[in-house]
Specification:
about 45% helix; 21 helices; seven-stranded mixed sheet; about 625 residues; five-stranded parallel sheet
Length: about 625
């Protein structure tokens, strides 16, 4: 019988661990992984394209690749030397360009043998090209395996994924909503997302029940995915959802797939962040779990310093515990961790001092030797802790500098009050006109949220705010787009569209923290979380009553079919048009309160600056 505990539920549906297992199995020549492996790994070369590298990068480090026998990891289209006594594992998309380069490798006899792993299913034409290349040089026997891996998604967190990191414009809010988008563009968007979601559920080894709103891009994706899964299930001999899939044994209950369009909530992507991970994504360069902190000083020729890059690893206990915490909590916890490290270091020093002055009698010597050995054994762990503490101290300090310089605590507080329909300390127009309050971009974000949440702003008021923004140096093209969007949708956002803020206990990172408002995010659901809760609990709600219900396992699909009264404990939520860490964290907080499991997926992971740029492009193109 399946356990009802949240921990057990979490273990069953961990996207990152399932993908990691699949990648490790691939590196092991697609052989089953041994629980305890005492043998020396077989050495091999790993060859990937950019997409393959992006998939592997967040889930396996270079030392982990070496542990599995990967001596070299190389770009397919980079310069590579011939290594004729080592097998090569390829992990690439089956594009015409990639296949052509692989054929060159075969003809050049680059490696001892070849294990071709394609991220998506390889078309028959491409297979024939590979076969022809091998026949031409009589090396057919060197091609050991050709496998469709179905891994076209990137796992950033245990319960978070995106379609891809590069070439995402067609999957972005801009790409989906631009006025000159052709039917072929929408089909490319749809097919890319369907491919990714299909691969996700193949990896999880389960068939979802699908819910989506009507009349937007999410419905397009839902219908195409439903058809794709149906066709695969119909082919019982080759179905990817039956048989001895690695994760089939964990599929105790089918998950709910909720496909949503970004237009469900345009305010949250603009909101100033206040949790650790979301702040880093908002204020720094965060990509594939690597963050760059730029140096303050300029280098020669006035160029900005390259700064320092850190890996936000799943093995970093501090990061795992506090990535979703409010910044005040993080600042306080960094200080506490530093104190604990310093105390541990003092204990090691005291032990060394005591052993140096001890007598040399047999029992005393043995006892002191044991203590000293224990102390020495703890040094590597202490050094790792120090490294993590230094990283988070630097990150928190850099965030704090931005918060204080731009008065981000004030913007966060004001936006929270707007979103919860509370009284503001200062009118938005006054904040925009204040030369000491943040940057032009910060003021634009504040106004856009205010505009979205205000149902009756007169043209005179709008013009006054736009003029103030222009005088502050902001590009108001995004306002142009939202004005058209509001006219088209003919509705304003509900009052409870986002969470409100409350005061919390005091905190400190250093004496520099003084002057920053003491704020945390309340445990309230964002619009996406509200929809998810209603669909998982099957509660009646005006927001979801018209949502479509699709079940790929039902032989004959009936349009307008009513969903059964089934409660769901597991869900995959996917945002067509882009998502953000604020929504992800809000969903995870909801999971902790409700004992549910939710995986968050996005077609495009954007921060506020990137989202405003997309809105601005839409506004500029509509003039």
């Amino acid at each position: 019988m399946a356990s009802n505990s949240f921990a057990d539920l979490n273990e069953r549906a961990d996207v990152r661990s399932r993908q990691t297992e699949a990648i490790k199995r691939m590196i092991n020549f697609n052989n089953p992984l041994k629980t305890v492996n005492t043998e020396e790994p077989a050495w091999k070369v790993l060859v990937y394209d950019k997409y393959g590298q992006d998939i592997i990068s967040p889930i396996m480090s270079v030392p982990e690749l070496r542990e599995h026998g990967v001596t070299l990891h190389l770009q397919l289209h980079g310069k590579r030397d011939q290594v004729t006594d080592v097998p090569a594992i390829y992990f690439v998309l089956p594009t015409a360009e990639n296949i052509a380069r692989i054929c060159e490798d075969i003809r050049s006899e680059m490696y001892e043998s070849y294990y071709f792993n394609f991220i998506t299913a390889v078309p028959r034409q491409r297979l024939e090209e590979l076969a022809t290349a091998a026949i031409d040089v009589d090396t057919v026997t060197t091609i050991s395996k050709v496998v469709d891996q179905y891994q076209s998604f990137l796992s950033l967190e245990d319960n978070m994924f995106l379609v891809r990191q590069h070439d995402v414009e067609s999957l972005s809010y801009y790409g989906i909503n631009r006025s000159d988008a052709q039917d072929t563009d929408m089909e490319v968007m749809r097919d890319s997302i369907v491919e990714s979601l299909f691969a996700l559920f193949v990896t999880l080894g389960t068939v979802p029940v699908i819910r989506c709103p009507r009349g937007n891009a999410a419905e397009m994706v839902a219908e195409a995915l439903d058809k794709r899964i149906r066709e695969n299930l119909r082919d019982t001999r080759n179905s990817l959802f039956t048989g001895d899939t690695a994760s089939a044994q964990f599929s105790f209950q089918r998950p709910l797939l909720i496909l949503l369009d970004r237009s469900i909530d345009l305010a949250t992507p603009l909101h100033h962040s206040w949790t650790y991970q979301a702040l880093i994504h908002d204020l720094m360069e965060l990509s594939l779990n690597r963050v760059t902190v730029r140096g303050d000083e300029a280098t020669t020729a006035g160029a900005a310093s390259q700064g320092k890059t850190y890996d936000l690893s799943s093995t970093d206990q501090f990061w795992q515990k506090h990535r979703g915490s409010a910044f005040p909590t993080v600042a306080d916890s960094v200080q506490e961790a530093l104190k604990e490290y310093q105390a541990a270091g003092e204990r090691v020093k005291e032990l060394k001092t005591s052993t140096d002055g001890a007598d040399d009698s047999g029992s005393s010597l043995a006892q002191n030797t044991q203590k000293l050995s224990s102390a020495i054994g703890s040094v590597p762990e202490l050094l790792e802790k120090k490294k993590a503490i230094d990283m988070h101290t630097n990150l928190a300090s850099a965030l704090l500098d931005d918060i204080k310089d731009r008065k981000l605590d004030m913007f966060f507080d004001a936006e929270e009050k707007i979103l919860s329909k509370s009284s503001l300390d200062r009118p938005v127009l006054e904040v925009i006109q204040d030369p000491e309050a943040g940057t032009a971009a910060d003021k634009l974000r504040l106004f856009l949220i205010y505009y979205l949440m205000t149902s009756s702003m007169t043209d005179t008021d709008l013009d006054q705010h736009v003029e103030a923004l222009t005088n502050a140096g902001a590009d108001v093209s995004a306002v142009t787009y939202l004005k058209q969007w509001k006219a088209f949708t003919k509705m304003a956002a509900p009052a409870s569209r986002a969470v409100s803020s409350v005061a919390s206990s005091s905190f400190s990172l250093t004496s520099m923290i003084k002057g920053v408002k003491d704020l945390v995010v309340a445990d309230k659901n964002l619009p996406v979380t509200r929809v998810v809760e209603s669909l998982m609990e099957m509660t009646r709600s005006a927001e979801v009553d018209d949502y479509r219900y699709l079940d790929p396992k039902i032989v004959r699909r009936v349009d307008g079919a009513q969903p059964p009264r089934t409660l769901f404990r597991e869900a995959v939520v996917f945002l067509v048009g882009g998502g953000n860490y604020i929504e992800y964290q809000n969903l995870q907080d909801f999971c902790k309160r409700s004992n549910k499991k939710i995986t968050y997926g996005v077609s495009d992971l954007v921060n506020a600056k990137q989202f405003i740029d997309q809105l601005a492009r839409l506004g500029a193109s509509s003039r």
